[in-house]
């Protein structure tokens, strides 16, 4: 039966019209709907079992480039009819070579487990389940434990089998850190039930024992799409107009080889759209309470058996999930709002790429203060959106500056803020690091990514000078980029 805290949370979520949550037997749980992770408030890892036919990784990378999400990891999960691991890193490199920023390396090599499911032990023990010890599972384990906190959990979004996510938990559990792992992450998953409100063997539900492990041990948000929401005519037409850079050409090739007619659009995007804006009426039209009271299996004919010689979709008897009447709600989406949002995201990503070279990349940087070791000024100019500079907390003003090495003509600065952002700051330039000139100022900063343009100015040194904190903490930047000639 649900705990009192679970029932209270469900009521709160229903009141604000948010996606309904499957918050299972785990402690601690979020105290209120406002504490559920969304947007850039939490680091995000994308895990999927196939990307060359879905456009979902392209969407994830576009959102990261625009600063809408804080992408810290990309991983791969097994698929029952795969013939090899899919090289996600090659897709990442296409995006980077096309000028997209804030995209981490992908962990994609599943070794011999590329089409292997988890297996239920004969005694039915989760603790006795053998994980698939793969590079993607280890990456998720390590990121959650090192980056996540109980107040700012890592969100792991999934579009395919939960094998890798469940294995990440099981690896942490073997090391005695399973409860810590569970307290530092939330799983946002998609189920492709087509409006039937059942876990039907597709998307997240392919590896049934992995679903069971995740539902019993992790905090889970499942969202469902209707079949029509996959038809995105504006997005589909837009692909043909994309520039012939590497990521644009990759998307055109994906469309040309599309296997899922008549569906035309991004697949597996449910989890990330739930993270961005989980309010009814935004990207989906209604939310209704349902029971996952039975399991509808497709009976995969392919896929390798797990370590104990059991097959995919083998555990129907163990997955009569959450049959109490106050359990899970699932959101079904509306076509037009999804299509418009995805189309606009790609339009912005392809048109908003800063031109030229990031002049600040790997240049010497200094700051007014550093909160602790590992968060030095140089971390904001290293091109890695998972590292950051953080100033001393609870103090104004604070600044960070970069030495371009020579006088350059600059006209654009891009600031990728951590949650400790500046509500009031100035962009200043100097030729000697002594006399500074303001080229931009604001008193209405709201965090995220600030893409600032101004009249061209000659400068060797560029400084962000923060005067008012936007949070109680301090000032922190993932990336401080400078563009010009």
Structure commentary:
It is a single chain. The protein has 485 residues and is an alpha/beta fold. It is built from eleven helices and 16 strands. The N and C termini lie far apart (63 Å).
Q: Count of DSSP helices?
A: 11
**CATH architecture assignment of the largest domain:** Alpha-Beta Complex
Order of strands across the biggest sheet? 1-7-6-5-2-3-4
The number of distinct structural domains comes to 2
Arithmetic mean of pLDDT: 77
How much helicity do the residues have? 10-25%
**Category by helix and strand content:** alpha/beta
Intertermini distance: 63 Å
Name the CATH superfamily classification of the largest domain. Ribonucleoside hydrolase-like
Uncertain runs with pLDDT below 50, 5 residues or more?
Answer: 1-36, 278-336
Order of helices and strands: HEEHEHEHEHHEHEHHHEEHEEEEEEE
Strand content: 15-25%
